[in-house]
Design brief:
This protein is mostly beta strands and 332 residues long. The protein has four helices and 17 strands.
């Protein structure tokens, strides 16, 4: 049964998946975005900034009728989003006010640029290395058939190999297999954030190609964990980069396993003959997930709130955000 996702969870995932802040020394800032509960000790010890989000305790949620019967309704949500930073003495740390301003600009950009798509999250491998654990992993193998995700023949990519699939930039990872009748295989594991009951579509995209003595081409499929089979096959025929897409808009829970993983395989369409290798090339891969819930969100207002009466100084920006979702209600 489908359900609407908690809008706070939707917006937190939007922020977490897109925010990138660089400190003055060139290092990536360590940020924590969570439901409202500011933790000064965590901020002091572990993070450069904390972002908290909650339904605004004053403005709350408005339930609006859009027709006379009340069957079509709009829920207007107001959110309080707060950026917290402090002056830290740790080496390489930005001044609290500087970090607050950087994170503030990021929050503004993320909400504004995604105001009509807050329910959409794009998962990819940018910045991921070995061994990272969750959220995502990539593997390679050579085999005479399409291995299941749990098969023992898969080997995870190394740190350097992961960099080949970070971006669509013509820097590729390749798996070459020169054993007769074996294919070059790649396996991609995506960790999906929302509850599977809230998902309304999954779109998997693979950018790359395959070569083999029997002809060029790559085949991509998605794993149905209920059927225990690879499905939704898409085929490429080029000897240069092309993008293959798998779209799942029904029975999507069959493709998100009990651990929240979505699995995609890519293989050379043709095998090696034992002399000329079969090679699968991957430049970029991603999973786009859309959930049921709020369909729009924007910035209403924001203001700086600095607490400088005690040290270390606390620098804050407080946003009011507005989002809404539509519902069709069956009347009794």
């Amino acid at each position: 049964m489908s359900e609407l996702e908690d809008p706070v969870a939707t917006l937190l995932r939007l922020i977490n998946s897109r925010i990138r802040v660089t400190k003055d020394n060139g290092e990536a800032a360590k940020l924590l975005a969570s439901e409202a509960a500011f933790d000064r000790e965590i901020l002091l010890k572990e993070y450069d900034a904390q972002i908290t989000l909650q339904v605004d305790p004053v403005l709350g949620v408005q339930d609006q009728k859009l027709n006379l019967s009340g069957s079509l309704r709009r829920q207007v949500h107001f959110f309080k989003c707060t950026v917290h930073t402090i002056d830290k003495v740790a080496p390489g740390a930005d001044a609290g006010r500087v970090m607050r301003n950087k994170v503030t600009e990021q929050i503004k950009a993320i909400i504004r640029e995604n105001r009509t798509l807050p329910y959409q999250t794009i998962y990819n491998f940018a910045g991921i290395g070995y061994p990272e654990g969750d959220p995502h992993k990539a593997y390679a193998a050579g085999a005479a058939s399409e291995l299941a995700p749990s098969a023992a023949g898969w080997t995870e990519l190394t740190n350097l190999e992961y960099q080949g699939i970070w971006y669509s930039d013509d820097v590729r990872y390749s798996k070459s297999v020169a054993v007769n009748n074996q294919y070059g295989l790649m396996l991609f594991r995506f960790k999906v954030g929302p509850r599977e009951q809230c998902v309304k579509s999954l779109v998997l995209s693979f950018e790359g190609y395959g070569t083999a003595p029997g002809g060029n081409g790559v085949t991509v499929k998605v794993w149905n964990h209920i059927a225990g089979a690879w499905q939704y096959a898409q085929y490429g025929t080029a000897g240069t980069d092309e993008t293959l897409t798998i779209t799942i808009s029904a029975n999507w829970t069959d493709y998100i396993d009990s651990d929240g993983y979505v699995w995609m395989i890519a293989r050379t369409t043709n095998p090696s003959n034992g002399v000329t290798p079969a090679v699968v090339y991957c430049d970029y891969v991603q999973l786009t997930v859309q959930v049921r819930g709020i369909t729009n969100c924007d910035v209403v207002s924001y203001k700086p709130i600095d607490i400088v009466e005690v040290k270390p100084f606390l620098f804050k920006t407080e946003f009011v955000l507005k989002g809404w979702a539509f519902e069709n209600i069956t009347l009794g």
